[in-house]
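> call design_seq(struct)
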């Protein structure tokens, strides 16, 4: 009698375990289905054995520090990428022109700085093309880098950007300069997290940008990183995206 009860308990226990395992498998399948087997990723970083990185500045809300930023970059012989919002270009056309004339790359950062994943395909295209036209008027050429405001994206955004000639760019090192955490913390955060192929996010009008930029450049240069524009870092073809958004080259 005792042995029978024990066997029954064991059987019940095994059934419970099997039910739990089945539930976990079903849940994992649902998660994968929700994410989608064809989920698209923007470029967060680039796989490379070379000590090359890109730093970038998003420009949306002010311009009073922009020329001084470029003065510092000149001192370190660094060219970078400025992602410009359309209304920023309208408000500061001479600054936008200065960025280009001083040898920096200009990327598209939308027209009105919306959450792009909430827009229709037609609305996304409009955001891209209106600012793209403004950049072309400054540079004489089509911009091919796009950074979505707030880092907000979905498959529709990436696909629409591609159809309009853009690579969608994110970042793998966020300086958090928009949080006003102080220049020492920003310097530590950036230099501690940078690795080969990193893309660093800064903002052109952050409170401490003129304080944190020189020590960051000093440290990166001392570690023998070559700092180049985003457009020179990314791969244009023969690549695939891994699950972290890292752009990896193929052997083709």
């Amino acid at each position: 009698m005792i042995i029978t009860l024990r066997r029954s308990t064991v059987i019940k226990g095994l059934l419970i375990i099997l039910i739990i395992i089945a539930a976990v498998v079903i849940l994992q399948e649902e998660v994968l289905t929700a994410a989608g087997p064809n989920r698209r990723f923007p470029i967060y970083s680039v796989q490379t054995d070379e000590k090359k990185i890109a730093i970038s500045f998003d420009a949306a809300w002010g311009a009073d520090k922009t020329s001084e930023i470029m003065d510092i970059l000149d001192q370190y012989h660094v060219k970078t990428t400025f992602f410009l919002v359309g209304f920023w270009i309208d408000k500061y056309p001479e600054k936008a022109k200065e960025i280009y004339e001083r040898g920096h790359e200009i990327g598209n950062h939308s027209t009105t700085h919306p959450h792009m994943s909430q827009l229709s395909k037609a609305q996304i295209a409009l955001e891209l093309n209106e600012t793209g036209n403004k950049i072309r008027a400054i540079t004489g050429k089509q911009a091919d880098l796009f950074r979505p405001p707030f880092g907000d994206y979905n498959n529709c955004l990436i696909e629409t950007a591609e159809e309009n000639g853009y690579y969608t760019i994110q970042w793998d090192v966020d300086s958090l300069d928009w949080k006003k955490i102080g220049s020492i913390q920003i310097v530590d955060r950036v230099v501690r997290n940078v690795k080969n192929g990193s893309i660093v996010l800064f903002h052109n009008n952050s409170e401490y940008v003129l304080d944190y930029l020189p020590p960051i450049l000093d440290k990166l240069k001392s570690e023998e990183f070559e700092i180049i524009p985003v457009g020179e870092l990314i791969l244009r073809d023969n690549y695939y995206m891994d699950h972290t958004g890292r752009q990896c080259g193929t052997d083709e």
